[in-house]
């Protein structure tokens, strides 16, 4: 039962969008998935409340001491997806300490990558005392369809010392449209969005398998 935290202290990076769509993708593949909203702003909770028939369970753990209890809760699930808080260092630190994998969504801008540098350093410091855990990767989010990453983005990613998934989540209206109804792209007929979420899920599952989780 891997615990996956979607973290970035910067707002607007796509944390809740990626958390909810990945969770639904795993659910569609037959996995038992729990979403954890660790952000006091409650974006994931608002999303969940907008759909009384939401197939995914959600719990709110928006205090650092509460997050510490998550491994016990997680035992009943195949995957736990933690929607990370923004700008709350104690919450982010608590999440990193109990998580198996940290995925960091960043928009294709060097400014967003630089903003995540403190988070990357915290992850690396944790890895040094825990035999490489949590494993971490970047996810490019809100990319513009049909464009390529610029050289400055590639350089900035390399400087952070973490890998990046090949699949990008692009900026599509279907994401906020389905979210406003408590749904995901799996409630739409947008083939391109479905394809990229499924492709990212494939990459993440392969990465988890390679890490031996």
Automatic annotation (TrEMBL):
NCBIfam families membership: ParA_partition
Species assigned in the record: Thioclava dalianensis
Database matches in Pfam families: CbiA
CDD domains in UniProt: ParAB_family
Gene3D superfamilies: P-loop containing nucleotide triphosphate hydrolases (3.40.50.300)
Name of the molecule in the record: Peptide transporter
Domain CobQ/CobB/MinD/ParA nucleotide binding: 4-182
């Amino acid at each position: 039962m891997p615990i996956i935290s979607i973290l970035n202290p910067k707002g607007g990076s796509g944390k809740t969008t990626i958390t909810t769509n990945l969770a639904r993708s795993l659910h569609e593949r037959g996995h038992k998935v729990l979403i954890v909203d660790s952000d006091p702003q409650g974006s994931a909770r608002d999303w969940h409340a907008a759909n009384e028939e939401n197939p995914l369970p959600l719990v709110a753990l928006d205090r650092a001491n509460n997050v510490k209890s998550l491994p016990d809760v997680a035992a009943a699930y195949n995957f736990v997806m933690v929607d990370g808080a923004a700008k709350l260092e104690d919450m982010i630190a608590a999440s990193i300490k109990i998580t198996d994998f940290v995925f960091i969504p960043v928009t294709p801008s060097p400014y967003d990558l630089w903003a995540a540098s403190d988070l990357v350093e915290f992850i690396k410091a944790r890895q040094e005392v825990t035999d490489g855990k949590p494993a971490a990767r970047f996810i490019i989010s809100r990319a513009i369809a049909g464009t390529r990453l610029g050289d400055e983005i590639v350089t900035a990613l390399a400087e952070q010392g973490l890998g990046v998934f090949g699949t990008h989540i692009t900026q599509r209206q279907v994401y906020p449209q389905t979210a406003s109804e408590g749904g995901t792209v799996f409630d739409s007929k947008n083939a391109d969005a479905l394809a990229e979420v499924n492709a990212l899920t494939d990459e993440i599952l392969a990465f988890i398998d390679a890490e031996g989780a």
